[in-house]
Amino acid sequence: MVNENTGKINVRIGRFTFGITMILFGISILIQMIFKLEVFRYILMFWPLIFIILGIETIYLTSKKNVNIRYDVAGIIFTGIILFIGTIMSFCSLVINKVVYDDTVKSAVLETVSGENLNYYFTEKIQINNLTDKNIKVRIIENKSYENIKVMINAKYNKEKFDNVIAAISGRYSLSNIASLDSYEKSILCINSYPEYIDEIVITVITNAKEKVNVTGNVTIQE
Predict the structure, then answer these.
(1) Closest C-alpha to 177, from 210, 150, 201, 159
(2) Which residues of 41-78 are buried (b: 16+ CB within 10 A; e: fewer)?
(3) pTM of the model as a whole
(4) Which of 23-37, 68-82, 156-170 has the lowest mean pLDDT?
(5) How far apart are CA 161 and CA 149, in angstroms?
(6) Are 117 and 67 in contact (CB under 8 A)?
(7) Do the Cβ atoms of 222 and 139 come closer than 8 Å?
(8) Please, what's the largest Cα pairwise distance for the chain?
């Protein structure tokens, strides 16, 4: 816009810096998400470049005689906001790449989850209901000297199908969600689901009498 009194062009310093900041942060976040590079630490190291760009913009515009400059306060403020939001988004992207998609972390979580054993204890009887269409294996061990009934549940996890660490940490992969007590008083144990990331579910029952163990559904009894 041309000033009618001076004949000079009115230019606000800060708009160019704001635009460059948006472009740089957009590119950096995109690079980090696609190539899984640690762009976040470089953002923390080189964020003062914003002031350098603003200084260059100021020197360039003030060197022009036909330009009447003003500082774009809103643009400078928005540049700071973009800097803050971009830093947070870069950090979140880094965390996602390092946690959700990192094979080392995934293997460590998988090892912890797959090493879980779910144990239940009963006194009189146990009813095992397989509510899924997949087969589960039940191994019954008879021990005459054993007073109670011990039920041990183990699942073999498939590493290649295990792709969500966040879900594992939140408890989605917990055995307690797969196998749970329908009624403790009636001693009913149900297999609620058989997710694709599990290759096999094996239930071992130790009892002093096999007659105390009843099963329904797609179950293979192992002696």
Answers:
(1) 201
(2) eebeeeeeebeebbeebbeebeeeeeebbeebeebbeb
(3) 0.50
(4) 156-170
(5) 34
(6) no
(7) yes
(8) 107
Task: Give the pLDDT of residue 57.
Answer: 80
Locate 158 and state its tokens.
Answer: 């498939």
Using CA atoms, how far apart are residues 147 and 209, in angstroms rounded to an integer?
10
Instruction: Report which secondary-structure segment, H or E, holds 113.
Output: helix 103-114
CA 49 to chain centre: 32
Strand bridging mode 188-191 / 126-130: parallel
Who contacts 51 (Cβ-Cβ below 8 Å, separation ≥6)? none
217 pLDDT exceeds 90? yes
State how beta strands 198-207 and 136-142 pair.
parallel
Q: Encode pLDDT of 104-156 as tens digits.
A: 666 666 666 555 678 888 888 899 999 999 999 999 999 988 888 999 988 88
Q: Specify the pLDDT at position 137.
A: 93
pLDDT at 175 > cutoff 80? no
Q: Which of 58, 54, 171, 64 is CA-nearest to residue 113?
A: 171
